[in-house]
Fold each of these.
Amino acid sequence: MLMNFLEEKILLDGTIKQGNILKIDSFLNHQIDIDIIRQIAYELKRRFKGVEVTKVLTIEASGIAIATMLGNLYDVPVVFAKKSETANSTDDKYVSQAYSFTHKKMNSVFVSRPYLQASDRVLIVDDFLADGQAALALMDLVHQAGGKVSGVGIAVEKGQQKGGKMLREMGCKLESIAIVEEMDWEKQTIQFREQPKRKLGKTNLKKK
Ligand code: 5GP
C-alpha cells in the first residue's frame, strides 16, 4: 500500500495506548512538527479546492496548530471554540455540548457571538475524529450563528469509531488525511484505510 506523509509519520513516531488511543505527542499533540502541520494544511486546502471558506473553526487545544496554518493559507480568521464545564449563559456566546472521548466527560464548548456570523462559510478542522462529538458540537455552533459548514477536515480519523460514517451519512464533506482502520495495542500494529490515489496534475514543462 502506498502511504501518504501522515501515515508514514504515524508509523514512525506514533504509539498505541490501551483504550484505542493513538498517541502522536511528538509531532501534533504536545510537540508540534511544523513541517508536518504545514503538509497537513496544504493537503486539506487541496482536498477542499473550490469550496468557499471565510473562516476556519477548531476546538482547543490540539486543533489550533492545524487551524492556524490553514487559516494562513486561506488568509481568513481562525476561531477556536473554548471548553468549559460551566458555560451556561448563551447571552453573549453560542454554546453546545460534546462528550470528550479522551477525558470521558461532558464539556460545554462555546464561541463568543461576534466570532461566528450568518455570512460565514466555515471549514471545521481537528486533529482527530473519533465518535464525532467535537465535530458535531462545532457544526452546531456554526448553525446557531446562521452560518454554513463548508466541510470538515481532519488529520487522523479513527475509522473503527462512528464519527466518520455518521458525518458522511449526514452529507457532510469530510476529508481525513489518515484513516486508521485497525490498531492493536498489544502488537503495536496499525492499518490504514486505502484512500483514493492522489491524481497528479498535468505538468506544463516549458520548452527550453
Ligand atoms: P470525537 O469528538 O470525535 O469523539 O473525538 C475527537 C477528539 O478527541 C479530538 O479533538 C481529539 O483531541 C480527541 N481524540 C480522540 N481520539 C483520540 C486519539 O486516539 N488520540 C488522541 N491524541 N486524541 C484523540
Amino acid sequence: MEKSYCIVTYGCQMNVHESEKIAGILRAKGYTREAREEEADIIVFNTCCIRENAENHAYGNIGALKKMKKARPSLLIAVGGCMTQQDGAAEKLKKKFPFVDIVFGTHNLEELGRLIDLKEGRKKAVVEIVPGKERVEGEDKDISFRTSYPNAWVNIMYGCNNFCSYCIVPYVRGRERSRRPENILAEANALLDEGYKEITLLGQNVNSYGNDAGGVFTFPQLLDKICKRKEKFRLRFMTSNPKDFGEELIRAVAENEQVCNLIHLPVQAGSDRILKLMNRKYTAEEYLKKVELLRKAVPGCCLTTDLMVGFPTETEEDFQDTLRLVKEAGFSTAFTFVYSPRAGTAAAAMEGQIPDEVKKDRIMRLVEAVNSGTRELSSAYLGKTVEILCEDFDEKKKLYLGRDEYGRMGYFQSEENHIGEFVRLKIEEAAGISLQGSLVK
Ligand code: 5AD
Ligand code: SF4
C-alpha cells in the first residue's frame, strides 16, 4: 500500500526549503502521498529555535502526538532541524517525549533515509546529531521535492560566521559554507527550464557568499550570471547583512532587470550602543547611508527589515532611536520581534535583561509605528496598475493571489487559472500589506 507523510515546518524560508528536501528523501523511500498528521505513516517535525516561542510551539505539537502514537504504534515520528541541533537538546527531547522514533539535526538532514532504515525493527529511538561540517558536499545537490510552483528556493550557502550576540543560528547551523557557483547555476537554470518564474536565493548572509572559497566568485557575480537568461522571471535573495551590503550588490540589483527591487536588510535596532552590544558592526548612520545609496541607484526600491525590542540594557532612549530610524528609513514593512534569550549566546549571559512588561509595551508601540508607515505606502497604490506573479488560489476568498516585485500581495477574481502567469491588476483596495484589484487585459 502507498505510504504517506506529513512534514510540519517551523521557522524561516531556509527551513521551508529544507522541508522540500525532506519531502524528496521521503519520496525516494516510498512515502509518496502527502497526508494530514492523523493519516500519515511518518510525521517529520522540522524545527526552529530562533526564539523561545518557536520552540514552545514545536514542543506543544510533538507532545500532542503521544495519544496518536499509542493508538497507532506503527506511526513513525521524526524530529529534526535547528532545535535538536542545540547542545543537549536531543537528550532533553528524548526524555520528554520517549515516543519519538528518530532525532536528527541540521547537519545530517540528507541522512534521514538511512535513519528511517535503522529504526526498522528496532525498539530504541535512533538519535543522531553530528557536529558542523567543513564543506558543502552532501548539501550541494538538489534533492528537493518542490510544491511551490511558480516560486522556487535555491540555497546558495549554509551557516553563519557573524555571531550576533543574541543569535543562536551560528551554533545550530555551523560555519559558512558556500555552494559551488556552477551547481547553483545548474539548479537555477534547470528550474527556469521547467518554467519556474521566481527564484529566491537563500543564505544567512548572502553578501559573504564565496568568502569561504577564497572570494573568487562573489554574490553580485552570481546574480549577473543567473540574469544572463533572456526569458521573463524574478530573482530575489535573502538575507543581507548591512555590514557587508555594498556598492557592487547595489550595482547588480540596479543593472539586472530580473532582480527584484526589494531588499530585506535587517537593522535590528536604531541605537548605536545597542547595535554594538549586539555585535552588528555598523552604526545607525552607516545603515542609513547605505539605504540612501540604494535608493539613489535603484529608484523606487522597497526596503524591508527585521527589528528587535528588549535587548539587554535597552533603555527608553535606545528604543526611541529605533522608532526614529523606522521613520527615517521608510521601510515598506518590517518583521518585529521581542528579544528572547537563547542559551549559549553572549546576550543571554548579559546583565540588564528587560522585564516582560517593558518588552510588551515597546513591541506594541513599534508595531504601530511600522504599520502606520505600511498603511501610508499602501494607500499610494490605489488606482495604480501593478504587475503580479500569480502564485495561488485562495479557496476561502475564492480569489487568485500573487505578489508584485515589491512583495505586496495582490488578490483578484478570475474564471481562468492564472497560476504561474504575470498579470496586471488595477488596484481598487489597499489595506495593510495586501491589495485587491481587477485584471487588466
Ligand atoms: N530574540 C528575538 N529575535 C531574534 N532574532 C534572532 N535572534 C533573536 C532572538 N534571540 C530575529 C532577528 C533576525 C530574525 C530572523 O530573528 O531580528 O533578523
Ligand atoms: Fe531558520 Fe534560524 Fe529558525 Fe534555524 S533557528 S529555522 S536558521 S530562523
